Amino acid sequence: MGKVWLASSSPRRRELLEQVGIPFEVVTSTYEETNQCYGSPVELVERQAEGKAMAASVDGILQPVIGADTIVAYGNRVLGKPEDEENARRMLHLLSGKVHSVITGVCIRYGQCIHTFHCETKVHFYILSDDDIDAYITTGEPMDKAGAYGIQGKGALFVERIEGSYTNVVGLPVEMVARKLRNISEDKGMNE
Ligand SMILES: Cc1cn([C@H]2C[C@H](O)[C@@H](COP(=O)(O)OP(=O)(O)OP(=O)(O)O)O2)c(=O)[nH]c1=O
């Protein structure tokens, strides 16, 4: 199948593909994200993942193009990346001592075919003090991450346990992606 094209500016998604040895190139996507939830959180992330994959500047290529979108869902609230430090503080207060979901939508566009799926991980947070939250915000780590924390960084100290995929929380469920890519390439082989 050769290299996949990753329509993402997220360093985490690159690192995850590198970690498991999936060869890739990064391409830019002109898709404008929204956290307006017109349907369920799953519909939102899947639609945004499709938008990112479809808006990647790779017309006519024969390799798979991957777009992904990660959000935090708590009750009926959808948390994307915080707009500012105050917003990050509010998000972390909301998640303190509670269980939330991290949902990543993934779209793999391959020729005329679009394969869209999602992965959900439940994350249990310890109770966080105001001091914990303030100290964390000064690290700058929350600002480019959905839900205002990074499980792969200092945010790990907030997490009591997770149920489901760890890589999904970091931004790309690579175990699902690898399996889907293998299925896609096997189907393609059979159809040739
Ligand atoms: C919950 C959580 C999220 N995140 C990150 C993963 C995603 O990069 C980010 C959510 O933002 P996204 O909009 O999914 O992705 P992005 O804007 O970083 O990259 P692109 O749209 O170009 O693909 O939050 C972590 O790194 N660690 C975590 O623990």
From TrEMBL:
EC numbers for this chain: 3.6.1.9
Pfam families noted in UniProt: Maf
Cell compartments where the protein resides: Cytoplasm
Catalytic residues as annotated in Swiss-Prot or TrEMBL: D69
Main localization (coarse): cytoplasm
InterPro entries (alphabetical): ITPase-like_fam, Maf-like
Assigned keywords, A-Z: Cytoplasm, Hydrolase, Nucleotide metabolism
Listed cofactors: a divalent metal cation
Swiss-Prot/TrEMBL catalytic activity: UTP + H2O = UMP + diphosphate + H(+); dTTP + H2O = dTMP + diphosphate + H(+)
SUPFAM superfamilies: ITPase-like
Main EC class the enzyme belongs to: hydrolase
Site (Important for substrate specificity): R12, T70, Q152
Domain of life from the UniProt record: Bacteria
NCBIfam families in the cross-refs: maf
UniProt function note: Nucleoside triphosphate pyrophosphatase that hydrolyzes dTTP and UTP. May have a dual role in cell division arrest and in preventing the incorporation of modified nucleotides into cellular nucleic acids.
Family membership noted in the UniProt record: Belongs to the Maf family. YhdE subfamily.
The protein, known as: dTTP/UTP pyrophosphatase
Organism: Veillonella magna
